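Q: Joint fold for the lines below.
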Amino acid sequence: MTAYLIRRLLSVVPIMLGVLMLTFLLFRVIGGNPAYRIAGKNATPEKIAQITRDRGYDKPYFVNLQDFPSQLLDAQFPRLLGRLLRGDFGESITTKEKVSDILRKGIWPSLCVTLPLFSLNLLLAVALALLAAYYRNTWVDRSLVVLAVMGMSVSSLVYIMVAQYWLAGEWGLFPVWGFENPYYLVLPVLIGVIAGVGGSVRFYRTIVLDEMYQDYVRTARAKGVSPQRILFSHVLRNALIPILTNVIIALPFLYTGSLLLESFFGIPGLGRMLVMAIPNGDEDVIYAETFLGSILFVLANTLTDIAYAVADPRIRLK
Amino acid sequence: MLSVGLLTRIAAAGSLLFFALAGCAPKQESQDRTLHLIGGDFRGFDPVDSGDVSTAEEICRVYEGLLEYSYLERPYKVIPRLAEALPEVSDDGLTYTFRLRKGVRFPDDKCFPGGKGRDVTAHDFIYSFKRLIDPQISSDGDWIFIHHVLGAKEWADKGNFQAPVPGFIAVDDHTLQIKLAHPYPQLLWTLTMSFTFVVPREAVEFYKQDFRSHPVGTGPFRLKSWRRRYRIEYDRNPFFSGQQYPDVGAPGDREAGLLEDAGKPLPIVDRIIEYDVSEYYTFWQMFLSGQIAAAGLNKDYFQKAIAPDLGLSDELKQRGIRLYKTPEPTILYIAFNMKDPAVGGQNPQLRQAFACAIDVPKLCEVIYNNRYTPAHSPIPPGIGGHTDKPYPYRYNLDRAKQLIAEAGYAGGRDKNNRPLRLTLMMAGAGSTDARQMGEFFTDHLRAIGVDLVVQQLSFAEYLRRKQEGHYQIAYAGWVGDYPDAENFLKLFYGPNKCPGVNATNYENPEFDALYKRISVMPDSPERTALYEQMVDIVLADCPWALMTYPLTYGLYQPWFQNYKRHPFSYAGAKYYKVLPH
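A: Joint structure:
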């Protein structure tokens, strides 16, 4: 188990390096030298050269062969990596804020949306999946499946626009936009749940049905155990592993926030920040988010594996 | 072991908490004399770092400078703000003497001894100007002084902040002199820009890195709260030094009700709340529901709001919403790299053929919903030197074919019968607008046999190539910094060629000689005549194919008053009025 954990944690290194390098290629190598944009439209060549020099944009991208070997890593990517590993996330080109401050301030608003959304989604999806499985092949089951498919077939953008127009704009039931008090979160969370619950219901229903056809269910039924008890005490317990997978794998996304909901409803969280950073080419913000996101993702995967072993004694991590 | 019960309880607790919180009702804020607007994400409250519109607008709420634009008068006019009057200018045009208004105070703030604000002096301006040209700060507004003020460049090169700049002199606490290295009549325009606004040394030194979050200025408003990427709130600055609503305006302003508040003390509103809304759909819903006072119109919502006759739609008229249309001091054009062997050089026919091949009125209609108008001069409307002379290269396919033949590419083929292939670079990689525009140009050039390849680049890469002159043809634009044609004509001045602002590398000795003359001339009919002469030279050589002038369309609520768009001034908020609604 310990060896497994060490191996999994070490896998953070190549994954994080790969994600960061891809981001670096997209935004720095293909995107070009940001000094021209930072310097402004009336910039003199000297000013551009100064910014380029000060920020190290004049260094080679990956390795510096000019002063080999002493300065081999005096290049843009190794410097970026070193900085991120030291916890120095740099500053935003657009707002001149420290990226660590942006992340610190953005995480709470993101969690205010994603935590209730995630909890409601989980509760509702599991409940509806159990209901559908319990009444399998009846009109209840079929209706739920149809509704789930319909719900997941519509883009969340449509839900947002319809809800903002009718529920908030025309009928005034909710604020159109804002993050003043918890009431402002109701509409984005509801939309998030409606847009996301369909897929989860279908997934959990399949898992529960798989379990319901197992031998132990037939045995329990033969022993006269009530259908409700079978469902809640046996089936649901055994369906826990795939449910756990689904839950834990989603945890990093609680941190990164919901890009669309935050943008449309003015939630000043990390999702909205990323949406604003990409068109602005705000590199340090993007690097920090991808760097932390990749680490969280690997950790969540490792946590899933551990949860497997905890939930099912038959599984051993090697 | 994790149990189903535990999982369920966690989920249930989260859900219950959510529903409990959802029961809270939204707080209704008083609308009385509070102005609700949309703002953008900006860099913070440091005047020397205010090179974008969003930042300049916020800076103008809390800081002020020596001069400002007259809010209502047109043509654009500079008036004193923290100066008592416009400066006395020496006969040689090299010394500007400003008398400062007395009694102008920085507000109380903990950065001052005992927390008590103090009077603004000439030394504060010198400190603020030095910050602007300090290489350690590296402001994108240093161009205002660095090459014009006596000894500024040498001072910056030495890098000793404590040393005096020979061109900035405090004659006494309330008299400031700016000495120039050469005549620079545009100085008055540039002193209205937020880059030059006055800050107290105490605040910069006290707040250090956080200075940009703690403005301490003399402006009409004071920062009350600020949550980045969400909301910013200002209230009235009790130390704001007396200013009244203007009693003179442009023709039509009185009829439009813009002079009703003449003589009233500023600011008129008590509070401003700005929301940072990034999605236009949300922004539109907020405007329609009356939550915000004004809204710009983007391409996607243009047809919802504007009738085919380019007036306001009936639906919006019924809501009492009003429309404003203002030409912007901006030009969009296609730039030819004059050093390129194919499109550059002294032979302008190919460039002229390119210009004649593009149906610009159709471009305005199809791509811009007629929010832009065809350009006919490199100097946009509203700027001295702009004329209504028709553009010599209006869309004319026959003429385009004739010109391209004269250039040696009849039917789009050279004398060896090889097809002519040109490359146009544009910023905005991946954007729908850039793609549509690229297709528009490609189709039009195909009509004269030219194979046009469109390169869509990231903005940073586009800027690099443009500034370094590594391109053949570029779709480009220039937003005026101040209402003087010199600000546009400098884009054709030979010594400004790459990596300077003359990205086309255009050089014409006659033009350059005229530019040298006008750049030191004060405003006069003679200078305007020279501007027109210079425009004629540029049009004949055709380093640009002129495209469009943007026209701003905006909407405002019936209860939002005293709004008049000024494309160079960002200090309008102090004049705005909100009626009870």
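Q: Anything notable?
A: The CA atoms of residues 274 and 286 of chain A lie 7 Å apart. Chain A touches chain B through 74 residues (CB under 8 Å).
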